[in-house]
Input
Amino acid sequence: MQTSFTLAQLADPDVAESERILRTCVHCGFCTATCPTYVLLGDELDSPRGRIYLIKDMLENDRPATAEVVKHIDRCLSCLSCMTTCPSGVHYMHLVDHARIHIEETYRRPVSDRALRTLLGFVLPHNGRFRLALRAGRLAKPFIPVLEALGLTRLAAMLRLAPAALPPARADQGRTLFAAIGPKRGRVVLMDGCVTPVIGPQVQAAAIRVLTRHGIEVVMPKTQGCCGGLDHHAGREGAALAKVRDNVDAWLAEADGPGLDAIVITASGCGTTVKDYGHMLRTDAAYAGKAARVSKLTLDISEYLSRLNIVQRHNTGLTVAYHAACSLQHGQKVVRPPKELLSKLGFVVKDVPESHLCCGSAGTYNILQPELADRLRKRKVANVEKVRPDVIAAGNIGCITQIAAGTSIPVVHTIELIDWATGGPEPSRLTGRRSPAVPGEAVVAVM
Output
């Protein structure tokens, strides 16, 4: 794509990076076939190629974002399916992130939109605030029809996602060190995150059990926190980078002290962000090198476990529909490890039709764009049900919450199944909902 940025504009490293990305695009349109919003709406401006044109025009002319541009950029899920499809290697993620920062700096959103985004940014990255908000949300659930009648669909969508009952916090919540069982084979940081400890504490508990069971010492620094992704994708770059620096300091204190093999993450959305820390802080002289080290150390839980000799201790005989989270398959290019681990442990693993399409979770997308998110969830659930699974496995807490809201099939994190098959407890969402496996029955994996 031809560009005409001025030398003064290109002196800004963010503009220079976006110009390089824009020049990589050859207008081929391959991305349109795999873009969820284009598949649903058929509007060129709701495709990656269309958004690239809008972003180029906005940045090149150095003009404030318009309501029309904001509408189409806001509809982007950042699922990054376009990056998997693109034959030219267009790094759409960095381009759309730059556009969102520009929107945040130059566009004044309607009051209701600003209020909701401010609320999400204030609540979600903080475990205590998030837990209190969910408790309040349970009390407000009966008013969902009233909110919808008043046109407050986004508030209604937020309340629908709130669980009927919060799971109890981990008994060891707040503990920072978990010793390896048996001979110590490694040491990792396990990122706790902001959402998972509140609505999915069983995920982290399962990860700790699997890691320690296989000789890995686990540390969870008290000073680690939100990855910064929620602020980053909302264009609030200052708030995002402050969280990034805090995590870099927390994790490198461990790496430079007792030492680390990896920073292990169970929420693939967070993993995609942390693996991009090196880029996010590339212009920060004090942190660029440190952030790059953190990115290099970061692995999804399935990536790390694939390096170990995971031992099966329990044969479940279950058929698993594996939902490939967009942030894992497109953002991190981690495709085979989760399925190979499940298959190795005796599960019958089935891919889901249209697995490249997003489920509609995408961070806070199912709150900010509830109509599109609902359509994507229904499409995802229909495809999942075609393979007739006993259980659905996913590697991201957002996907788990989104899909579970649309189906009666149990949805669990991949690590919960791995934990169960290697000697841990049966996932709570499966208890009493399965047929017992036949002892010694052979299980064949279908990939």
